[in-house]
Amino acid sequence: xxxxxxxxxxxxxxxxQVAGILEDAGYQARQASNSTEVLDAMASRQPALVILDVWxxxxxxxxxxxLEEIRRDYPDQQVVMISGHATFDMAVSATKMGAYDxxxxxxxxxxxxxTVERALRELRLQEENRxxxxxxxxxxxxxxxxxxIMVRLRRTVDQIGRTDSRALIAGPAGAGxxxxxxxxxxxxxxxxxxxxxxNCATLDPDQNDVVLFGMEPRAGKPRRLGVFERAHGGTLVxxxxxxxxxxxxxxxxGLLHDNTFRRLGGGRPIEVDTRVLATTTIDLKAEVDAxxxxxxxxxxLNVVPIEVPPLRVRRRDIPGLVxxxxxxxxxxxxxxxxxxxxxxxxxxxxxxxxxxMWELTNVIERLLLTARGANDSPIKAxxxxxxxxxxxxxxxxxxxxxxxxxxPLREAREAFEREYxxxxxxxxxxxxxxxxxxxxxxxxxxxxxxxxxxxxxxxKPEGAGA
Length: 466
Known about the structure:
The protein has helices at residues 12-24, 35-44, 63-73, 88-96, 109-135, 148-161, 177-186, 208-213, 227-230, 246-258, 284-289, 295-301, 318-332, 342-350, 356-371, 381-391, 401-405, 409-427, 432-439, 443-453; strands at 4-8, 28-32, 49-53, 78-83, 101-104, 167-170, 195-199, 214-215, 224-225, 235-239, 260-261, 270-271, 275-280, 304-307. By secondary structure, the protein is an alpha/beta fold. It folds into 4 domains: 4-132, Rossmann fold (3-Layer(aba) Sandwich), CATH 3.40.50.2300; 144-309, P-loop containing nucleotide triphosphate hydrolases (Rossmann fold, 3-Layer(aba) Sandwich), CATH 3.40.50.300; 312-391, Helicase, Ruva Protein, domain 3 (Orthogonal Bundle), CATH 1.10.8.60; 401-453, Arc Repressor Mutant, subunit A, CATH 1.10.10. Strands 2-1-3-4-5 form a 5-stranded parallel β-sheet, with helices on both faces. A 5-stranded parallel β-sheet has the order 7-10-13-6-14. Strands 8-9 form a two-stranded antiparallel ribbon. Strand 8 (214-215) and strand 9 (224-225) form a beta hairpin. Helix 6 (148-161) crosses helix 7 (177-186). The radius of gyration is 29 Å and the shape is elongated. The relative contact order is 0.08.
């Protein structure tokens, strides 16, 4: 979606000239001839940029007074001042008041476009920095994995990205739902627009309306823009959408119906063009059936359902994810990524990862801490087990001590062997040959042992994944 720019100049020819230049460059232009019109244009929907003349004839306020009011009510707004009678002192005053730049008329087309591009680039960098701070340590930046389920998911993301459909992205905590939402945005025509992410679970219930829909200036406080308006022309991701109150859910239904809403304390309808993606860790259909989630909102969001799988069902992707995280986290810590023994990768792939990517990231960080100063010795399976065990019950150790101690020796030994065999079958992806080689048995003996212990497995060929 094209960036929207408001042009305020009291000369119709200048407004039309600037609007034509910007539209030829791929921007959307709105025009205003005086202070009342430009401030009304701002109130109806905040643009990406304002181009504002200093001298405004037949206007209640001049350009500098408008600039002062805009900066008061819209602290993040980018404003470029223009004038045909500029002085050095005037340019300095405008810059001190918060103008991004000052251009003198008559100006060259390339100078105008270059200034607009620089202003919008800085705005985009500010947005990206805010997003990076929000995302720090949460997940990876790429959809990594060669397992069939991830190949299908990547294909789905590419297909949806080319449309403007809403999507409901479901999956367990830490599986990468927000990553998928960002990938859809980046694959869409809206990629030039803002990506705004709101975690609904962290909202103060008393601030829901303000955060979502914004608030008009009052009690000396500036106007606040809600996330729907901030994401105009781009994408809004509502993380954990089920956490919103039923009252707010009903308001969002109305917004999605006609793409308009009202700021808190305002009577003017605001029109927006915002794509909405939502994520959830719970079964929203079950919440609808239990009358805990608005049915209309569910169907408006669930145009395209996307299921993000947990790590345990795509174990073959874990080595690639580990290598990616090793490089990224080691670079952040100014370390050289350590070498992993193959059995260390097997141990990582054998664990069920209930915390998914969040937990995997934490374990890799622990391993990097223990590897520091270890004379470049490879990471072993025992180190992986210890790192997993620090944060959760480990799948690589025996967790039934009391139960075992209260059993006769024969039953305790069988229970241990059953757990032992199940672990190594999982570790080697159900591959009988690799499991037999590790435990020191031939294939036939291993089959008999598994049958006697009541352990069943669907044998996978050499090289098969999870």
